[in-house]
Structures are given as C-alpha cells and as structure tokens.
Amino acid sequence: MLKQGEKLLIVHRRLFEKDSPRFFVGEVEVYEAGIAKVKGYTFVKDQFSGNMKKKLGVRTKIMSIISGTFIVYQLPVTVLLDSARFDLDQDGGLLLTDDEGFLMDVAESIYKHDSHH
User: Fold this and answer.
1) Cα 36 from Cα 70, distance rounded (Å)
2) Mind listing the pLDDT tens digit for each residue in 47-93?
3) Cβ neighbour number for residue 56 with a 10 Å cutoff
4) d(CA 52, CA 66)
5) Phi then psi dihedrals of residue 82, to 5 deg
6) Is 103 helix (H, G, I), strand (E, B) or coil?
7) pTM, whole model, 2 decimals?
C-alpha cells in the first residue's frame, strides 16, 4: 500500500479530551503488512503559546498504521519535510505548510469558532 519515499502526516488520535495534539510528518522508508518505518519530525503543542512546535532532530518511528491509534494522511511527495511547520490561519485554524507553498488544513473542526474550543 505505501511505497518508499511517500510522505505522510500521522496524527495521534486523542483518546481523552485533555490529550495534547501530536503530529508526525515524515517519509516512508519501509512498509510491510501495516507496519511503516517513517523518518521525519514530531510536532507537539506548546502548552504556553498554544502553537505546534517541531521537536529538535529527525526521528525514525516504526508504527502500526492500521492499529486505530493514528490517523494517516498521504502528502504530496513534493512536500519539503525540513521546512514543514504548522501555522494558524486568520480564523485560528491549523495549517500544515512548507517553504514551497504547500498548504493543508488540519483543523479538527470545520467550525473554527464553536463554543467547545
């Protein structure tokens, strides 16, 4: 299903309302039977600013993408992982972007101003 060189956005499912959002943006090195070895960057929510911060250093993760604990999005192979980052749009929605102009809305809701957030 996945091939070497394909790029992914992997979102950790939040199991509880207070769980912080966690994202991993990376490139598939190996894929076999639902297990992916992906090299890239981890992003976590900064508790003070509320912004998504890239953790230092490239990481290689081995994850079961069929386990149900991840939501996996395939990204264009042209996405530049080194410059990938999360920004907020004018409405406070979360966007994944890079230095080449890639843009993906990753907000959890289409209602950005609902009273629950």
Assistant:
1) 12
2) 888 789 999 999 999 999 998 899 999 999 999 999 999 998 888 88
3) 8
4) 25
5) -65, -30
6) strand
7) 0.87
